[in-house]
Amino acid sequence: MIGRQHIELDLGTVRKLAQVSVNGKRFGTLWKTPYRVDVTRALHAGTNQLEIRITNLWVNRMIGDKQPGAKPLTFATFDPYKADSPLLESGLLGPVVLWRVAADRIDAFDVDEKDRALSARQ
Questions:
Q1: Tens digits of residue pLDDT in 50-80
Q2: Long-range contacts for 47-50 (Cβ within 8 Å, ≥24 apart)?
Q3: Hey, is 58 helix, strand or coil?
Q4: CB burial class (10 A; 0-12, 13-18, 19+) of residue 5?
């Protein structure tokens, strides 16, 4: 808590699981809406490091295993998918926003495209 306010990380739309850590402090797994977590206790003055790990859908992994040259990683007794099956929407879709939450108002901080791209790759 910073005075009577705190900072929340809002991941926006996520398909399906997200693990968040800030400056090495883990905030667990977000698995349902809202994909939002209070990160105040991990923040410090200056540059902070945000890591977001997203888990892909099992269906997409199974389809990926059927792509030419792919080394299969999955096994299932029921597998109705083919290499040309459509992938389901998956990943960090955003927008990613930091919110300053106070007793009487909420302010948004923009997370620029560079930071969003770095976070998505990790």
A1: 999 999 899 999 999 999 999 999 989 999 9
A2: 48/22, 48/23, 49/22, 49/23, 49/24, 50/9, 50/20, 50/21, 50/22, 50/115, 50/119
A3: helix
A4: middle
Give all strands (DSSP E) within 16-118, no chain letters.
17-22, 25-30, 36-38, 50-55, 91-94, 97-101, 106-110
Q: What is the dihedral of CA 13, 31, 56, 54, to 10 degrees?
A: 70
Q: Give the gyration radius of the chain's Cα atoms.
A: 18
For residue 1, pLDDT over 70 is answered with no
Burial of 96 (0-12, 13-18, 19+ CB in 10 A): buried
3-state secondary structure (DSSP) of residue 97: strand
Cβ neighbours around 65 below 10 Å, total: 17
